[in-house]
Amino acid sequence: WMTGLTKDEGCLKSVWITANSSRYQEFTAGFDTIGPVTFYYDNSPFAEEITKKIRAKYLKENDEQTTQRGILDLYTDSYFAYPAVEAIELVLSYTKNPIYLYELAYRATNSFSQIFGDPEGNYGVCHADDLMHLFPIGFMDKPVSPEDLKMSETIVTLFTNFATSGNPNKPIGLPIKWEPVTSARNMEYLEIESQSTMKENLAARSRYWGTLPLWHSLRNSRFMDEL
C-alpha cells in the first residue's frame, strides 16, 4: 500500500475563511457555535470541552497571523492527517505487506489554493497539490518552473514504480531510497522535497486529536464523509 499527505491539506477549507477578513472574524468570534458543526462533534456530550481544547490549541487570541495559521493546521489535522494516521495504524495491524508513506512538502509555483479562495496567497502545499505533478491541470496561470518539472518527474517515477512492481524504488532507481513503515510507533515516511529525505512520525501534530474525548466513539462508526 502507498498513501500520503500534502503538508498543508487543510487549506482546502481554511483559505476561504482566512483570505476574507469578515469571514475570518465570523469564524473566530463564533467558533463555539461553528466549531462543533464543521468538525462533526455537535452531538457529542463533550462538545463544550472539545471546543475549549481546540480553541486553546489552534486559535490564539489577539494574534491574527498565528490564528490564521492555526486554522489551516486545524483543518489539516482533523480532516486529513489524523484520519490518515488512524487508517495507517489499522492497516498495519492487519497486514505484513510493505506500506509506503509520503508527505509532499515541495511548494510548486502554482497551488490549488488559487481556486480554493485566494489566487495570490501562499498557503503552503495545499490539498491536491500532488495531483499537479501527475496530471495536466487547467487553472495553472503561472509558468511552471524547471524545479516543478523535476519534481513532477520524481513523483511520476515513484508512483509508476510502485504501480509496476509494488515498490517505489524500482525498476527505475532514484537518489533517495523510500523505506517502508516498520511500525505504527515509528511511522516512517518520505518527505518529498527538492532534496527528499526519510523521516519518522508522520503528522505528529495531529496526534492531539487522539487525546480529545471524540475519536474513541467514532472509530467504530461505519460512515464516510466524501470531501
Automatic annotation (TrEMBL):
It comes from the Eukaryota. Residues 1-204 form the Carboxylesterase type B domain. The keyword Cell membrane does not apply. Keywords: Glycoprotein, Hydrolase, Serine esterase. InterPro entries: AB_hydrolase_fold (IPR029058), CarbesteraseB (IPR002018). One of its GO terms (molecular function) is carboxylic ester hydrolase activity. The keyword Hydrolase applies. Belongs to the type-B carboxylesterase/lipase family. This is Carboxyl/choline esterase CCE025a.
